[in-house]
Amino acid sequence: MFRSEYADVPAVALPIHEAVLARAAEFGDAPALVDGTDGTTLTYEQLDRFHRRIAAALAEAGVRKGDVLALHSPNIIAFPAAFYAATRAGASVTTVHPLATPEEFAKQLGDSSARWIVTVSPLLETARRAAEIAGGVREIFVCDSAPGHRSLIDMLASAAPEPVVDIDPARDVAALPYSSGTTGTPKGVMLTHLQIATNLAQLEPAISSRPGDRVLAVLPFFHIYGLTALMKAPLRAGATVVVLPRFDLDTFLATIQNHRITNLYVAPPIVLALAKHPAVAQYDLSSLKYIVSAAAPLDARLAAACSQRLNLPPVGQAYGMTELSPGTHVVPPDALRDAPAGTVGKLIAGTEMRIVSLDDPDNDLGIGESGEILIRGPQVMKGYLGRPDATAAMIDPDGWLHTGDVGHVDADNWLFVVDRVKELIKYKGFQVAPAELEALLLTHAGIADAAVIGAYDDDGNEVPHAHVVRRLTATDLSEGEVLMYVAERVAPYKRIRKVTFIDAVPRAASGKILRRQLREPA
User: Is residue 151 part of a domain?
Assistant: First the structure.
């Protein structure tokens, strides 16, 4: 068993809005959130006051403890206020990909039993259609303004009393993001107030912001990485979060330059752009102190090329997953120059790890031996919503969460992730469940069977690659037709990027797809 080198931290038994915004009065007029496109700024005092007023208005509208509110928005400065207002009113927040189709959104609404939606006017039609399909939604609010819908802006004038909700941080769910885990279709991950707040405290000895730091929020808030690294941790510490709604390289670089960004949390595709794109040379990025990459594996050579080009310490990595609130490992900024290339870091405070044999999970492995990574600590999720069997398959009776990732530890306790036993595809950090795409492919009249695996494109991104068996009546079915069929029915990040036609999908006697047989030729 491997244990953290950091001292344990006490559990943070606070509602998440208190754990993050407890020092808002102390930070006062310091900028908390800045719109990177137009400069609109919210101070800590305003963020604290605004989220309390919105919470009062939500409670007046009927939001109660135990309700689920779906937050469906790109990164905007109103996102944190909406999130913390909902939790203060007693609701759990399920975050929704802003590019989800109405059908995908409706599945999440139905599975989570969400009764309320907060969206933005450009996405309103998608939210309306999803609510119609799912049923059970009482009201749709908007962050900006739209005819016939109450706005968060209008809620700031609410005279309703601030709700007083008896929240049990150890039991009550604060966030309900959706994850595919190691396999299968997306499932609601129940993260309690205590689990999320404690994970923030666990990360602080290794990596933390401070007042005066400026953090760029270009990774999506709806994703657990963005939610933690860009919306919770910096606001808990008094830093300034500069918000961008989407990644556009020139806008991204100009924002770093003009807002003097100091701390950058990104995914590997952004590291690739920083390392190789000629536009980078046109901007002054000298304010940057360090870069951390997570959400997907980062090639060590690419990391080195990025740091050399920007004259920065080596790009650090972090490791975790939605089911772990999400962090377990990080390369601390003060160790970036000494950490071995390719490591995802060391265990954060209060976290234990085992590396077990892939052939015999009861056999623990030692230094330098590769096996499945198991994690135990206060950040392990409460479970999957409504799926006790899936929860039991993920977390064993002793509390060890089986990550589905393969790795090894060196003599200095640095972790290296080298492979996956899980089926999940990570496209630019976003989860794509093969089973979901396979089920969709089988609805095509010309497809008899299908299997989807992850394959790497020329830029080093893992992409969905479909292996398709044509029906005898559809021998002329083309790759383009398959690609278009899927693209019309899923969010862009889930699209099939390559199709190979095969005679039969390899399966075990149990019917399980033998993906490794497909992956090896690929």
Answer: yes
